[in-house]
Specification:
This is Anti-sigma factor antagonist. Pfam families: STAS (PF01740). Belongs to the anti-sigma-factor antagonist family. InterPro entries: Anti-sigma_ant, STAS_dom, STAS_dom_sf. By secondary structure, this protein is of the alpha/beta class. It has a single domain (5-103), classed as Transcription Regulator spoIIAA (2-Layer Sandwich), CATH 3.30.750.24. It is built from three helices and five strands; from the N terminus they run ββαβαβαβ. Strands 1-2-3-4-5 form a five-stranded mixed β-sheet, with helices on one face. β3, α2 (58-73) and β4 form a beta-alpha-beta unit. The protein is globular, with a radius of gyration of 13 Å. The termini are far apart. The model has no long low-confidence stretch (mean pLDDT 94).
Length: 109
């Protein structure tokens, strides 16, 4: 298993978190804690770049939903970028592709 590595960038539209490794039961709390510490404002966008995501279990999906809830409470939005095919398949199967804004790797709509 690959430990979760998260790097953070600030942009004019809001924070970008680059998520690499395993987003599972063991490592998801790190992402959840980081998102909860973010100071999001109304109209901002929290972009989760999942380019390096190798695995995502149900705890990881719950963490993505918690990030969305945190952003919505602040009047912000969560965008998932570069979602790997295996994770996109899961999101689609459970209907979360209609809940999240999902963008390709370059971050365009």
């Amino acid at each position: 298993m690959s430990p979760l590595q998260i790097t953070h960038d600030a942009t004019t539209t809001g924070p970008v978190l680059h998520v690499d490794g395993e987003l599972d039961y063991e490592y998801s709390p790190a992402l959840r804690a980081l998102v909860e510490r973010l100071g999001l404002g109304p109209g901002e966008e929290l972009l989760l770049d999942l380019t390096g995501l190798q695995f995502c279990d149900s705890t990881g999906i719950s963490t993505l939903l918690a990030a969305r809830q945190h952003a919505q409470a602040a009047g912000a939005e969560v965008v998932l970028a570069a979602v790997p095919p295996h994770t996109l398949r899961i999101l689609t199967l459970v209907g979360l592709d209609r809940v999240f804004t999902i963008r390709p790797a370059d971050g365009t709509a």
